[in-house]
Design brief:
2 copies of one chain form a homodimer. Chain A has about 170 residues and is α/β, with parallel strands linked by helices. The first copy, chain A, has a single domain, classed as Alpha/beta knot (3-Layer(aba) Sandwich). Helices cover about 30% and strands about 15% of the residues of chain A. The first copy, chain A, is built from 6 helices and 7 strands, in the order E-H-E-H-H-E-H-E-E-E-H-E-H. In chain A, strands 3-2-1-6-4-7-5 form a 7-stranded parallel β-sheet. In chain A, strand 1, helix 1 and strand 2 form a beta-alpha-beta unit. Chain A is globular. The interface between A and B is large, with 73 and 73 residues.
């Protein structure tokens, strides 16, 4: 313990969740498996247990760490069919994207039963998926570059979801 | 424009800031220049213009993008002298770390004039720096792995600072 009362605690226990996280993360085919693996790690930290990923990308265990044991990843050939099914199951479909009519992440009220739809690093969310979304949120940017890295943006949106919906002991 | 009214907008203009960001980011010698470069990119997105970095690490322009033209990076041999000076100049020193007596980032009220002190990927914030801090904040974690990547954690803390202190038009 330092004089200030602060002392580094490696591997502090996780906070309890009142129940299973209802959040699902849906990713298009990504340009970078590094970004995808980083998203898996952040999802693990947030207590997420379900991700939908397009194609058959390799998740890098050195990046995703033991999130790979917690997050169940469903591989699909495309997003629209599974998104339609999730919508029928009562999920709200929220895209993360700089788009026309996107709302600031600051003010967007998440519902627990949400699918967070991530955009491709360069191409964003394709029109066939945009058409299915209930809302699109974006993270305010104040300088250059004019957008966050896709994995960083996803991690920030996950944080905001947890801040609103999570419990912290 | 899609039927839903959502359409991808690449390079949407940045939000205006009422004045220069007062936030300063202070980094110890980091294990990974990739992480450091990712922090520079996120800092750029947040409108940050000043970072203090230990040693003479190479910032990867392909990762940091044009943040390298906006964020002025001061290279120092160690953090304590410059942190003491910043404290005298009225900055609040806030560490980002899982530590004893750390507060949840959810509830921590940032003041605009803040130095965000980042921890080393493995070693966290060293005791000589912890001793100088006014507060330590941590991001709640709900699953595995039990901690965020250092650059991801920093980006999330920057987001929370901007959410509280930033303006969004």
């Amino acid at each position: 313990m330092t004089d200030s009362g602060f002392s580094h605690q490696r591997h502090k226990p996780a906070a309890d969740l009142p129940g299973a996280r209802e959040l699902v993360i849906a990713c298009p085919p990504m340009r970078s498996n590094v970004n995808l693996s980083r998203i898996v790690r952040a999802a693990g930290c947030c207590g997420v247990t379900r991700m939908i990923v397009c194609g058959r990308p390799k998740i890098d265990r050195k990046i995703a760490r033991d999130a790979v044991d917690q997050v169940e990843i469903e591989f699909r050939s495309s997003l629209p069919p599974v998104l339609k099914k999730l919508k029928e199951d009562g999920y709200q479909l929220v895209g993360l994207e700089q788009a026309t009519n996107s709302q600031s992440l600051y003010e967007f009220p998440f519902v627990p039963r949400t699918v967070l739809v991530v955009g491709h690093e360069r191409l964003g969310i394709e029109d066939g998926v945009l058409n299915l979304l209930d809302f699109v949120v974006e993270i305010p940017v104040y300088g250059k570059p004019l957008s966050y890295n896709a994995a960083t943006a996803t991690s920030i949106a996950l944080y905001e979801y947890c801040r609103q919906c999570g419990s912290y002991k």
